[in-house]
Amino acid sequence: MAIVATTDRAPFATADPDAVARFLTAGGEPAYRADQARTWFWRQLAPSFEAMRTLSPAARAQLAGGYTFSTVAEHRKREADRGATVKYLFRLQDGRTIETVVMHYPATERGRARTTVCVSSQVGCPIGCTFCATGQSGFDRNLTEAEIVDQFLAASRGLKAQQRALTNVVFMGMGEPLNNYAAVVAAIRRWARPDTLKFSPRRVTISTIGLVPFIERLAAENLPVNLAISLHAPDDALRSSMIPVNRKYPIAAVVAAARAHAERTGRRNSYEYVMLAGVNDSSEQAGRLASVIGRHLTHVNLIPMNPVEGSPLHRPSRDRTLAFQRILQAAGISTTIRDTRGLDIDAACGQLRARELAPTPAG
Ligand code: SF4
Asked: Terminus of the chain with fewer CB atoms < 10 Å: N or C?
């Protein structure tokens, strides 16, 4: 992979408003140009500094000389599910790539239509879950706050032409978000500011493999985000074989920390459970899962596994998945089977990037 030089211009998304005003006035522009630029950037979702029409050409040029408009650049874009799923491969300034996925969900009797962006928090992932393409491709680095914020903005700009806007954010792309705690929390706070997007943390879900100390820290943040715990197994022996970090943070500790977070924030926990045929899908395992997580402030998402090229693992039959769901529901646990998106565009995390990085077959 060609690594390009990193620019030393500061990202505009995380620039201090006063510093922008000082920068513009030093170049002879009135200070109010900084407010205009921020309105264009955050509210109008302008596609570039050049498109900020009410700014003078000199002010636009000055901004472009001093700040990076976006730290993520669209490298590839693919659609599936008749346009309901859009998957971006973004190139970062150092030449590395990450994935961001936009998913549209129609209104149902349970709620309004939603448009969710699934953002990445790291380039690759150090956790190494056996069923995950990202985990198998290794870890490069954490994303910066700006790289996380800019994924949201780039997706929003893409939606603007369709007169759509994002309603939810999930940290379920590449990486373990709590492993990049400071940047993830800063990005959520940045989106929520009254002078940016006013995007409520209640509409943000952090998906974690269960890094207990960081779940505890998050509970103390006064940040009412939703937590989705990637559990995937009802007992420690099986979970440790799939998720090595379970040896450090076993299921009971993860569930206790998640419960404390739910009590503190009033937000319901969701437990993610990738259904793997013959591995974690038996009726007995469903019963054990119900007793481990309990039903208070709890929801389970069953996720039939997306195929991973070269993996012997596969999803159970629909009947088996439904039987598993019925056992949880009979125990009083609200349970949904997730609509897995974009099978035809490599929707399991890391697969689009894995393909980009794979050597081209000879001949
Ligand atoms: S499932 Fe999540 S935590 Fe596990 S390797 Fe993949 S990205 Fe990392």
From this structure: C
pLDDT (0 to 100) of residue 18: 95
Residues 32, 165, single domain; the answer is: no
Per-residue CA distances from 283 to 46, 278, 288, 289, 333 (Å): 52, 11, 9, 10, 15
Task: Give one word for 95, left, alpha or beta, with left for phi > 0 and alpha for psi -120 to 50.
Answer: left
Inside any domain, residue 240: yes
Kindly state whether residues 37 and 55 are assigned to the same domain: yes
Beta-strand runs (E) in the chain:
10-11, 67-68, 72-80, 85-92, 97-105, 114-118, 122-124, 139-142, 168-171, 204-208, 226-230, 269-275, 298-304, 334-337
Is 3 part of a structural domain of the chain?
Answer: no
pLDDT classification of 307: cutoffs 50, 70, 90: confident
Among 99, 127, 139, 205, residue to substitute to test ligand 1 (most atoms within 8 Å of Cβ): 127
Percentage of residues of the chain with pLDDT beyond 90: 75
| 25 and 132 share one domain | no
Range of the domain at 275: 75-357
User: What is the CATH classification number for the domain harbouring 189?
Assistant: 3.20.20.70
Residues 102-137 pLDDT 10s: 999 888 877 889 999 999 999 999 988 877 777 777
Q: For a pLDDT cut of 70, what percent of the chain falls above it? A: 91
Q: Is residue 282 part of a domain?
A: yes
Measured from the CB, is residue 231 less than 6 Å from ligand 1?
no
Overall number of domains in the chain: 2
The answer on 307 and 203 residing in a single domain is yes
Point out the ligand 1 atom lying closest to the alpha carbon of residue 174. Answer: 7
Sequence letter at residue 354: A
Q: Are residues 56 and 102 in the same domain?
A: no
Examine the domain organization and report whether 171 and 218 are in the same domain.
Answer: yes
pLDDT grade, residue 4 (50/70/90)?
A: very low
The yes-or-no verdict on residue 362 having pLDDT over 50 is no
